[in-house]
C-alpha cells in the first residue's frame, strides 16, 4: 500500500512508533526512524533504539535510516525532514508519534513538568509538521498522522500537561487539514490504546487504576499500525481532518465538539437569569466528570 513512499516516524525506537515503522516498511515504504533514545521522562539520549529498528527493517528487505534529533527543537525537527529528503529524495508521510510523560496531579505539577511535555508533544508535532509542509505543498501531496489521546479527548487523572498537549494536537491537525486540503495534503489523528513504556509510568495507586492498566496490557502496539498505514496510503485519499481511536481490535471514529443544546432570550441575559433559566435548561445535557476508563469501560475485544 505504500510502495515507493518516504515516511517519517517520530519516536519510533520502541512501542507504538516501532510497530508503525515496521508496518510501513512491510507495505513498501522507505522509513526514517526517529528516536532520541531517551527515557519515558525524556532523560538521556541513545542512538541504539532507532538504529535497532532500522536494522529490523533492513532484515525484512526494506530501506530505512536512523535519526536521533529531538522533535522539541525546531532545528532538530528540520533535520529530521532533511534526513528523509537526503536519503530518499522526498517525503510523503509524517507520523507524529514522539512523546514523553511527566504525570502529576495538577495542584502539584511544576512549570518544568508542564513545559517539557507540551514541548515534546505539541511543539514537536508543530515543528516537524511545519518543516515538512513546504515539501508537501510543492509536490501537492502528503499525509500526516498525529497521535492524540483519550486523556485529552475525554480526560484522565494526573495528566494535565499531557491532556492539554494531546487535545491541542487534535486542533492542530484540523487546522492543517483545513489549510492544506487544497494541496491534496491530509491530516488525521489516532488516539491509541496500547501498552507501552509511557502507559507503564501511569500511577496505579488504587485498585481501579491498577485494573485499568492491567486491561491495557492486553493491547499491543502492533494493533495501532494497520490504521496508521492505511491513513498514510492513497486508499485513504478522501479521509481528512478525522480523529480515530484504536483499542485492541476495535477502531472508533471519535466525535468532535459541536453545539448540542441552546437557550435564547430576546431581551438578553443577566447573571440572575442565567442562574435561574439558562443553566437549569442546559443541565440535562451536561457532561459528567468522566475519565477515559469510564467511557471505554468494557474489556477490550
Descriptive report:
It contains eleven helices and eight strands. The longest helix is centred in the middle third of the chain and has 29 residues, at 111-139. It has helices at residues 15-26, 48-59, 74-88, 111-139, 150-153, 160-180, 197-200, 207-216, 225-232, 271-283, 292-295, and strands spanning 6-9, 30-34, 64-67, 93-96, 142-147, 185-193, 243-247, 250-253. It is an alpha/beta fold. The chain has an eight-stranded mixed beta sheet with strand order 3-2-1-4-5-6-7-8, with helices on both faces. The protein has one domain: 3-Layer(aba) Sandwich (Rossmann fold), CATH 3.40.50. The mean pLDDT is 92. Pfam families: adh_short. Residues 5-201 form the Ketoreductase domain. Belongs to the short-chain dehydrogenases/reductases (SDR) family. It comes from Caenimonas sedimenti. InterPro entries: KR_dom, NAD(P)-bd_dom_sf, Peroxisomal_Beta-Oxidation, Sc_DH/Rdtase_CS, SDR_fam.
- Number of helices, where a helix is a run of at least 4 consecutive DSSP H or I residues: 11
Query: Strand fraction band?
Result: 5-15%
Helical residues, percent: 40-55%
Assign the CATH class: Alpha Beta
Largest sheet: 8 strands, mixed
Question: Order of strands across the widest beta sheet?
Answer: 3-2-1-4-5-6-7-8
Q: What is the CATH topology descriptor? A: Rossmann fold
How many discrete structural domains?
1
CATH H level, superfamily name: NAD(P)-binding Rossmann-like Domain
What gross morphology would you assign? globular
Cα distance spanning the termini: 27 Å
Number of strands: 8
